[in-house]
Write a structure and sequence with these properties.
It is built from seven helices and six strands. It has helices at about 1-10, 25-30, 40-65, 80, 85-105, 130-140, 145-155, and strands at about 15-20, 70-75, 110-115, 120, 145, 165. Helix 6 (about 130-140) links the parallel strand 4 and strand 5. The chain starts with a helix and ends in a 5-residue tail after the last strand.
Amino acid sequence: AVSRAEEKWRDSLDGVFHLAGRGDLEHHWTRMEEHKVVNESFDTYETMFTPKVYGTLALHQLLREREDAMFVAFSSTVGVFGAASFSADSASNSFLDAYCRYRAANGRPNTYCINWSSWDDTGMGKNNPAPMARAMAANGYELIPPGRGIHSMTLALRMTPQQLLIGLNRS
């Protein structure tokens, strides 16, 4: 597919944005007990690993011979801090974070890992219930409006730190 696209556009692939993820926070909040580490199912881990872990490995193969290609990963703050009822999501994002560190340490400095708190009413944060949004804010996580998220991403790609947490407040 990449070869066909490069041929069609007469240009090479210069990088990828890995934004893949699975989940539905609205649904998750109504079934939190089921998602605690001791109760989590293998199927949920597999569902969360498919886009984040297996998708990352597929992109790694795609970019294997393209040392200068940019790799931008959209990860989550739960990959850094964990969360009692988000173990599968935390594990898959932790893998993505570790992969980005591995990639950068192995001569691919054009690697960025952005750990987001939660986008406001967008993506996995679509229809995030207000009580949960308030609970997140009380624990230091802000909902990120899409415009602010795009602006933050643009700034992050201009910075030297290759892993950046976005959407945390001072509490």
